[in-house]
Amino acid sequence: MTTTLPAPATGALGLGSTGLAFGCDYNPEQWDPEVWVQDVRLMREAGVNLVAINVFGWSHVEPRQGEYDFAALDRVIDLLHGAGIGVDLGTGTASTPPWLTTRHPEVLPVVADGTSRWPGGRQAFCPSSPIYREHALALVRATAERYGDHPAVKLWHVSNELGCHNAHCYCDVSAEAFRGWLRARYGTIEELNAAWGTSFWSQRYADFAEVLPPRATLSSGNPGQAIDFDRFSSDELLGHHRAEAEVLRSLSDKPVTTNFMVAAHITALDYWSWTADMDVIANDHYLDHRLPRPHVELAFAADTTRGLAGGAPWLLMEHSTGAVNWQPNNIAKAPGEMLRNTAAHIARGADGVCFFQWRASVQGSEKFHSAMLPHAGTESSTWHEVVALGGLVERLGELRGSRVTADVAIVFSWENQWAADLEAHPTTALKYLEQVHAFHGALWDLGVTVDVVAPGAPLDGYAVVVVPELYLVRDEHAAVIADHVAAGGRAIITFFSGIVDDRDRVRTGGYPGAFRELLGVRVDEFLPLAAGDAVALSDGSTGSVWSEPVALRGAEAVVTYASGPLAGGPAVTRNTHGQGSAWYVSTVLEDDARRELLRRVLDEAGVTPDPAAQPGLEVVRRRDEQHEWVFLLNHSDRAVQHTEAGHDLVADHPVTGTTVIGPGGTQIIRKDRKRS
Ligand code: GLA
């Protein structure tokens, strides 16, 4: 597998409806049939037009091997269809039925220490298991034969969040599949030995038969083996998606997708290599209250999803009306927050927004997860907010297909994350995603919209590209950045970038390896800082976590170290390269200093922050030929003012002059582009 670029953008979601999709996961198998009728009536009341069903339906649809019972699903689909609600039909393969794991315990997944995981939860299968695959595909075939042409079906939903729990399986079946993947990648065992650097610690293999997944070891393991196992594992799950999609496409012409998990806590899949297989890019996103600013991470996830969609509209398949149930503290949403989160996804390119789930479960491990229809029923603030939101999403149908544009790109790579965050590196304090979030978050603070792109993606049209901690980089991908700068662009590259090639082999001759010439600097040693230590910088701020003796080889110092062994030496540099400039950041900056640096580079590049943006007020614009929709999301606890004039689709009334948005408030203002 190599990281590939997203499929080209192709219009709106193509789900056959007009307007935006608004909906939910629905698990009718948890309820009596009388409830279904009430549910469908209430769905209409809320403006729901797309419902994901049968996501976990396997043990209902196939209660015993080969015995299919579609009666309940028929009824539910007909009820939804009768109400004009489209169906996102799950293939049902995400959770194995007890008969399968009882008869074939060999499908169960095995973790790194060699112990298997039992059924009783979900995703209790090995992604490489041919027995699981055979049974899953039989179910997919039966389901597609029955519903492939059903007019209610708008979308196929392969499995669910592939790899959420079982991304890595270390069983013997996986080991054999891994060996097959390695044979295809390297051809000979000599080539694999070279790629993994097995001369180290007597790890040379004589034959592929000796190769194992990176099972738990006493010491640190082989990094090449670990990265390849991550690549293999992502490919195996994509392979499963492809197998299901192939069956679906042979029996149905409806679009096929699976729900991605672009999130801070799940990073096992290289979605850049998945996009070409998706007819619709769909993502699940939940606010993560373990992070300092969950709503800013939401913006990053949404920008990344738009990047995966190649800039085209995408579908938010799941988010929540309130608290989830899987974080240490499951924080409910404040009044207005659900609307703000929904608007943030739409602002950043979603043409549909759905929730997990419709009706709150009363049993099972997700019974304390929020839903559109909570335990309290319709006499609840959640329900009232949901109904109001449904009305707004209907009004927002006019912006379907419009686009977000950005002058700044940030390079992000899951493959790099696997490599950069491996053990036995200079410090465990450095976490790749934190560095990416820090730069994306600083641009968010400045009111600058950012596209998230894969390494190697074309950079034409971007004035500035930000490259945080791109530890693993291929020559050709580094060249795209250098060419961008040579042609007049700006690049900001941080410490611990360009260090290794795609075999995790260190580029010698001075860090930052692949970017040394572009940056006009040379570093001969890493000097990570002790926990809690900081080093003074010449601009009055401090650096933390990381520092480096930066020797200038053509670059100029912009900020210097002001204390410690590096005092007087460059900390931030600027190098003129061709028509543009490349900036190097050798330490973890404070938030203010990072923003200041970005402001300076943006200024040099002629990029101006959104004029309406201000502290706490997120501003994003979507445009088509005729209109611009300005999303103004007040995340702060104080009122803010702006002067954008047009029609506010949230309050559904015109705004002119100076307008106030109250604490936590949201406005979405339609403007006529010809007049603005
Ligand atoms: C994921 C899953 C859903 C549900 C939610 C809960 O997104 O796809 O089935 O478990 O998490 O947040």
Short description:
The chain is an alpha/beta fold. Among the domains are: 408-605, Rossmann fold; 617-672, Sandwich (Immunoglobulin-like), CATH 2.60.40.1180.
Give the arrangement of secondary structure elements.
Blueprint: E1 21-25, H1 33-46, E2 50-53, H2 58-61, H3 71-82, E3 86-90, H4 98-103, H5 130-147, E4 153-157, H6 172-186, H7 189-196, H8 223-251, E5 256-257, E6 259-260, E7 282-284, H9 294-308, E8 314-318, H10 337-347, E9 350-355, H11 381-395, E10 408-411, H12 414-420, H13 432-446, E11 450-453, E12 464-467, H14 475-486, E13 490-494, H15 516-519, E14 521-523, E15 534-536, E16 542-544, E17 550-552, E18 556-560, E19 570-577, E20 580-585, E21 588-589, H16 591-605, E22 617-623, E23 627-634, E24 640-642, E25 646-648, E26 653-655, E27 659-661, E28 666-672
Parallel strand pairs: 1-2, 1-9, 2-3, 3-4, 4-5, 6-7, 7-8, 8-9, 10-11, 10-12, 12-13, 13-20
Antiparallel strand pairs: 14-17, 15-16, 16-21, 18-19, 19-20, 22-23, 23-28, 24-27, 25-26, 25-28
Helix pairs in contact: 1-3, 5-8, 9-13, 13-16
Bound molecules: alpha-D-galactopyranose.
Residues 160-161, 284, 286, 318, 324, 356, 366, 369 line the site of alpha-D-galactopyranose.
